[in-house]
Amino acid sequence: MFQIPDHQVAGHKASKGIIGPLIDNSGRFYKPLQSNNRGSKEESFYKKFSSNTEIPNHIRKFFPTYYGTQHIEASDGSGQHPHLVLEDIVSVRTNPSLMDIKMGSRTWYPTASQAYIVKCFKKDSESTSPNLGFRISGFRVYGNEDSGYWKPERNNVAGFDTNDVRIALRKFVSSNSNDLDGESDCAFVQNVYGGPNGVLAQLLMLKKWFEDQTLFHFYSCSVLMVYEKIKPNEDRSCVTIKLIDFAHVVDGQGVIDHNFLGGLCSLIKFVSEILDN
């Protein structure tokens, strides 16, 4: 019934001796609760978010549907383990292209331990997070039946500089995506980044909410972009934007989440420039 998802581009992936997410054939994604209270914090966030009547309906669509928590056999065969049961975002796609973008110039939350802050500070400082307010955590792009998927090695992505980020965002919407070298044709840029339902329009909708919302601060949260390639002249929406990973969300205490908002504005600038060009 359960299987390891093949579309995961970042995060803890199931492997020998390591517990990771599972999917089923009904469109649900099973994320194991993490240790050190991270799992219980993420579970608490989903419960609070689902029941909060202050969240506008047009914003709820940017968050995976939460179906509760369920004990199932862990992916490593170690026995029953609690899993968050969430919407499998790519279950309706045949050949989805995905990009995971970690938001914020800093990824540690205010009450984190000194050891955790040092760990996050090192990882952040070696990436584009401090300069851009976001970093690309991983992505894969579908080419065609012959070429299949192109997915850069995680170590290479972790070392991206600003120019690499710009290239990757262009390659993500190109028909010739098989490495980071060479020109990008951006054949799908209008269908994916442009239009009333494209990435830019959806990010601007999120930005408007983040300019006002003071309910939550989303540390170490990601924007997941998903689309499926269609013919460049087809006029239909093919893009999904979701926020994921909420183990480090904290109470906003009436203050705007400038850390996330700053990264969101920066990402919008990059996408806008690609569209303009």
Structural class: alpha+beta
How much of the sequence lies in strands comes to 15-25%
Question: What's the total count of β strands?
Answer: 11
CATH superfamily of the largest domain: Inositol polyphosphate kinase
End-to-end span in angstroms? 46 Å
Radius of gyration: 18 Å
Which regions have little confidence, pLDDT < 50, spanning 5+ residues?
none
Helix content: 25-40%
Number of self-contained structural domains: 2
Supply the CATH architecture of the largest domain.
Answer: 2-Layer Sandwich
Question: Quick one: CATH class of the largest domain?
Answer: Alpha Beta
How would the global form be characterised?
globular
Biggest beta sheet summary = 5 strands, antiparallel
Please state the average pLDDT score. Answer: 89
What is the CATH topology descriptor of the largest domain?
D-amino Acid Aminotransferase, Chain A, domain 1
Q: What strand line-up does the widest sheet have?
A: 7-6-5-9-10
Give helix and strand order, one letter per element, not per position: EEHHEEEHHEEHHHHEEEEH
